[in-house]
Amino acid sequence: MNRGDFMWNRVELKKTARERLKSYQGKAILVSLIIIVLESLPAIFNNEKVLRLLDKMVSVDSNLTEDGLRNYFMYCTDIFTPNEPVETILSDIPLFGWVLAYVIFRLVLTYLILYPLKVGQNAFYYKNRLEETSIDELVYAFDARHYKNMVKTEFITYMHIWFYTICLIIPGIVFSYAYYLVPYILVEDPMISTKEAMELSKKMTAGHKKDMFVYAVSFIGWDILGMLTFGLSDIFYGVPYRQAADAELYFELKHFYNSKLIGTAECE
After folding, report:
1. pLDDT given at position 179
2. For a 10 Å CB count at each end of the chain, is N or C smaller?
3. Domain span at 227
4. How far apart are the C-alpha atoms of 141 and 121, rounded to whole Å?
5. Is residue 88 part of a domain?
């Protein structure tokens, strides 16, 4: 089967997603709310003292003279321990605990909680595509049997995309679509190896990246509305609609890929 033998229709795909979403929209709103709240936690954690410290760090004289460093650490002391003088740099190391705590918190939240929850979000829409299910699917990735594998696969996938993005922006965009289906592949086979999941996603999206880019751009109106409504439209419709459409897209590309495999086997 050639690429030309199969063309998924973006308009029809999104229409189907809207129709299917109607049957579980209430639960989808709750799932979106949970994800958006958790993604907002780092901003809530931005303690005023940390922000003031970081601001001062940026404004320190770039020459880093002895007097400049001393004034900087004196400033740190004024923020955190106004009655305790600073005599040495070492005495001020604990003051950076706020910054260190924030970095650790962000890493834990992102890689150990948010990434698995994103897979759970995909599982929720994937399974509702087949039959109505509960929001319990949101914690699908936290099953002890495959949690480690999912965290590792998601982390390595994002690192690949990040690496290609900082090297050259265009390759980063291309690989973001190449690995677009990895979370859904993990939903179907939670114990699949990282390499296999990434390779399978690349094969399933081969020849479709341009169409996927146009599909993604077609949601820009919802993105703008989300900003104008401070995220409310995202919670109540924008995100559920996009996720439901993504699930439809996965099934379309999976169908084409499987049909291509069958066609190849018959030719042999």
Report:
1. 97
2. C
3. 7-38+121-267
4. 9
5. no
